[in-house]
# Entry
Amino acid sequence: MTMSDTYDTPDTRDMLDRTRQGVIGKPLDRPEGPLKVAGTATYAAEYARENCAEGVLVGATISTGRVRKINRDVVMAMPGVLGVYSSERMLRRAAQGTAGEAPEQDVSKVDFPMQPVALVVAETFEQATNAAKALDIEYEDQSGDAQFLPDAADAEPAADPIKAGDLDKAMRDAAHSVDLTFTTPGHASAAMEPHAAVAEWNGKDLTLWGSLQMLTYNVAELADSLGIDPKHVHLLSPYVGGGFGSKLGISHEAVAAAIAAKELGRPVRVVMSRQQVFQSIMRRSETEQRIRLGCGHDGRLTAFAHEALVSNLPGESFSEPVTQASEFLYAGENRLLAVRKSDITRLTAGSVRAPGEAVGMQALEVAMDELAEATGIDPVELRKRNLPDEVPGEGTPYSSRRLVEALDAGAAAFGWDKRSATPCARREGEWWIGMGVASAARVNILAKAEARVTLTANGHVVVETDHTDIGTGSYAILGQVAAEMLGQPIERTTVRLGDSRLPSGAGSGGSWGASSTGSAVFLACEAIRATLAQALGCASDDLLLQDGKAWAEGVEPRPVTDLLSEDLTRTGKIEPGKLMEKVNQSTYGAFFCEVAVNAFTGETRLRRMTGAFGFGRVLNAKTARSQCLGGMVWGIGSALTEELSFDSRDGHLVNHDLAEYHVPVHADIPDMEVILLEERDPHASPIQAKGVGELGICGAAGAVANAIYNACGVRLHDFPMTPDKLL
Ligand code: MOS
# Structure
């Protein structure tokens, strides 16, 4: 059964209700959790291979130019050094924003400061580190030609702008309007587990333990980088300590480890330092955004313009899709949406959690707050008045959209009615207290996925796919779908992930993992159910499976194992159908936040935050909630502290570690509440789920910014809103 058979006709609506265990949605623990806490979940750097050599990457000390010569001799004479590699295929692969799209690359060219250009391999990590520091590389320094700041005049459209009506006239005629320019800085993914790879060859066959989000793509990328057939590449990534986009594509450590291991004829491990991850793995682009909104006296938008300037390295195709949610979220018949990209000599820009909405929504939601103030309409009400019946300019209907419910439920839980409409109304000692709201919105994507499910003759369920778990709950969720569908206890369900030899899952990215690979598991289970129904002598639609028993109306319950003479294995596949283009499927939510701003220091402390979210069927209430919490925390960081700082002289990253790149810690996040609005979206996927992985960040920083204004009356448009800007 493939998805296109079932998906375009949403006749899967009731399929999940055939079994009544209620396993799907339960807040079950992640089965790998205890392994991670006990330190027994093995991460890429931890695979012990016999005779493994250690590689350390060397970054370019110029910002642009060429490698002229690598003087290997001195380093080769150092203790334990086995080799210095900078082959034609090696090290040049930039971490990409979009898996599978590598620009043509000239191997001796340096595109950005600290770009890895060589790998030093030694018997021990210490020897390799020492030798890497001593490696003498001669460069042809062309840094003088580099442009270090976005130049709006030179920027090219990243895509065709969306235009409708007469924006200028609508702005002139509007009863109320705002015209605001925002800036957001670059962000780092900064996953807890640094990038690492252990490579081992057996003849022509490469096995690589890596930290990767998308194994099917990663096999193709690595094979391409090495110039070998993908069938010779075996990737293993069973546990991944966070990705946030930084591991969507392969990066230097994987290619370097593979090449050195081949040359040396022994396993090679390459682990990036925290600084190397910051310096050479992609960033989220900084943005400059101009937002113009115009509305009538009733607050209904007539003019809506969102224009953004982003950057990337010259020749890179990815551009942060800043206006993505602006395409469908609010009304306004006179529209302009445009993103332009400028070339800049900083490390590659790519997908960082919720590319587009993360920064686009945080600016838009501040603009909406300012428009609400101009109209005198409550900001929650203003948003509710501006939800269109169909996508503006497209006429596309929406699938499920629980934004009104999210705003209402969030407002009620938070106590929004206690907010003063005017700023500076509440003071406690030296702290100004204020409240802010923002909408959340994020596109929903269904990705191609395949999964294999086996019901063993003794009643055990095994789910297998090369899908990854980046800390998000894939192991738990995929097991829940199978346990639900096959009526077996969750304790008898095993999920195997992160092995490229298993069927090709969707991979973890773009919030699509659980709904897409979950749908493939669902369809594999449907096929198993059909076989069981046949064995029981009933129609597939009438089969009931629960607590390890099978029955139907008029057919006595029997243990499922009685129907099995051998293991029963089926594969489920899903692909996006044509319906996706006809229905806008997005995910929605609302943030409410209370901050305290110090009147003397300008320091902002978060006091509490509530988020309410609707994203289709909840597959696991605990992991979904955790995703929302994590997103909100990142939103708070975006609002208050997070910022990549580049030296304007040569484009090098100044704050290249977690001591200088400030993310919120526990003490910064006192009180968070998440409300999950259960819903079914039959258009989104056979399991009626959409994605939630990225939703919690999309707009969260706007709520914080709006609360700051409500607290102390200072309106800022440049993120992050650090004390120096507030005073
Ligand atoms: Mo995500 S930024 O697609 O991992």
The two ends are 62 Å apart (CA to CA).
